[in-house]
Specification:
36% of the residues lie in helices and 26% in strands. It is an alpha+beta fold.
């Protein structure tokens, strides 16, 4: 299945509209009163997660009934078109339930197993970052680009607050070498890399729906999105975003820590 830039632009426009509609649902709940629940893995889920994903799925099914859909809350619906939409209605639910605005609606689109576009809408921050293959990356409709930081000693390193449990000594070594480190996690941290506000983001536990929108955004912004073995994938179980210039230094630091 081939896709030209005109069709890709239309699909991106459709995705942006969907993300903002779902963001309205999510933001309404965020600013109201709700009772979070716990899933089997002890992670949070809310009525906003379910309502937003249902809206995303219904909208896609109406326009593209033959497309596959994978979502965090409702699993996978097979398709026959060669396209698969990958949805995370709220990435950063822990922040969401604690009243912290660092959460986003995420939409990724695969065509023949290759990710061609990604949208991350952060409704409480009024920020939208999006990209499509070959069309560039944008932040609130203006071109976005990763930073020009070329050495870890000048870099801002981000990691979720439980990254040490998975990255161990590698994280400690990276933090020691970086200029500064912070724990601005989930999709927000990766978007800070895509927009040049941070240089590296480490995420120790990632599902496909956590990654799908991120890979095209980070790459179209000029960066790299890999697992901690340096593989370009959304199925590695963890993820590292860099500005590209720091990729080799980050991977070498991780390699040395793993082999020590």
């Amino acid at each position: 299945m081939t896709i030209d830039s005109s069709e890709l632009q239309q699909l991106l426009g459709f995705s942006l509209g969907l993300a903002r509609e779902a963001g309205t649902i999510v933001d309404h709940t965020f600013r109201g009163t709700f009772s979070p629940e716990r899933k089997a893995d002890n992670s949070f889920v809310t009525v906003a997660d379910r309502e937003a994903e249902r809206h995303l799925r219904n909208s896609i099914e109406q326009v593209f009934p033959d497309d596959a859909i994978l979502g965090e809350e409702e699993g996978e619906k097979p398709g026959s078109s060669g396209r698969r939409w990958i949805l995370d209605p709220i990435d950063g639910t822990y922040a969401f339930v604690h009243g912290v605005p660092f959460f986003g609606v995420m939409i990724g689109l695969e065509v023949e197993a290759e990710l061609v576009l990604g949208v991350v809408h952060l409704p409480a921050l009024n920020e939208t970052i999006y990209a499509a293959r070959g069309l560039g990356c944008f932040w609130n409709d203006k071109p976005a680009r990763v930073s020009a930081t070329s050495d870890l000693g000048s870099a801002l390193l981000l990691a979720t607050d439980f990254a040490a449990d998975r990255f161990g000594q590698a994280l400690e070594d990276l933090r020691h070498r970086a200029n500064a480190s912070r724990t601005w996690g989930d999709c927000y941290g990766h978007m800070l890399v895509a927009t040049g506000r941070a240089d590296v983001m480490l995420d120790p536990v990632m599902n496909i729906w956590d990654c799908a929108a991120l890979l095209p955004i980070i790459e179209e912004a000029g960066g790299t999105f890999t697992d901690w073995d340096g593989r370009r994938t959304i199925a590695g179980g963890n993820a590292i975003s860099t500005n590209g210039l720091l990729f080799d230094e980050v991977m070498e630091t991780i390699r040395k820590a793993k082999s020590a």
